[in-house]
Specification:
single chain, alpha/beta, Rossmann fold, 2 domains, globular, disordered C terminus
Length: about 250
């Protein structure tokens, strides 16, 4: 039997006096699209932060391809092959779109550089950075200043930057958030093309996207896993339907 690429066992996290991750255990296989859903306040983003290294669990173990990454810094996880996007895109807004994946490429290769230089012009960067933008469908925006792009295109720049790091595991935090109908369809089509290229753990509130894309769906409520399985089983679970009532903001 194939071992999971990502294994989470007994992860607990307190923020102040609130237990936001309560004994979470999840497996993610190579090439799998694994959606994490649940009401606001369920702890979905907190879980992604612990996988990505933005937060360290108070208890439990996170293993990536056999390596214990529970306490590793973000940059070390990135070098192992973990990429990340956020609810609000984290990009270099005053740079050209092409410069964003170029910086990701330099980080992957361990280069240091002065910010006064045009990073995409450094050896081997420009072609790779262009390929990353092409992969998300915005190669025509390569020289546009990133903060002048639409919200949807800024999301695509962030995904291109994550892909430039050649991740084996990609963490996506609400990639559909704030998108209009056409942008959502475009994003959904992109995510379909990324399936199988890397394992993906996606937090998302758009249930149409979740159930059309995911191989596995895990449901959180009050920091606990209340269900995990095939999309059709999760869709028909009365407990999952009940968990969406009366929630507060996510953490």
């Amino acid at each position: 039997m194939t071992a999971p690429l990502l294994t989470i066992r007994g992860v607990c996290k307190r923020l102040g006096g609130l237990l936001v991750s309560d004994d979470i255990s999840i497996d993610v296989m190579s090439g799998e699209m694994h959606a994490v859903i649940g009401p606001n306040g369920a702890g979905k983003t907190t879980l992604l932060n612990q996988i990505g290294g933005q937060l360290i669990p108070n208890a439990g173990v996170i293993t990536f391809d056999g390596t214990d990454i529970t306490a590793l810094p973000v940059q070390d996880r990135a070098r192992l092959g973990i990429g990340r996007t956020f609810q609000v895109p984290k990009i270099f807004a005053s740079f050209a779109a092409l410069d964003n994946p170029a910086i990701g490429i330099l980080g992957r290769k361990g280069h240091t550089f002065g910010l006064w230089r045009t990073v995409r012009k450094l050896p081997d960067c420009e072609a790779e950075a262009n390929a990353a933008l092409a992969a998300v469908g915005i190669s025509d925006k390569a020289l546009a200043q990133t903060d002048l792009l639409s919200h949807g295109d800024r999301r695509l720049v962030e995904i291109a930057t994550a892909l430039a790091g050649k991740p084996r595991l990609l963490l996506l935090d609400e990639p559909m958030a704030g998108l209009g109908r056409d942008e959502s369809l475009r994003m959904s089509a992109l995510l379909k093309t990324l399936k199988g290229e890397a394992a993906i753990v996606m937090v998302e509130h758009d249930m149409d996207a979740v159930f059309s894309l995911a191989d596995t769906v895990t449901v959180l409520a009050h920091g606990k896993v209340i269900a995990s399985g095939r999309p059709e089983d999760i869709r028909n679970s009365p407990q999952v339907r009940t968990s969406y009532l009366g929630a507060d903001d996510d953490v």
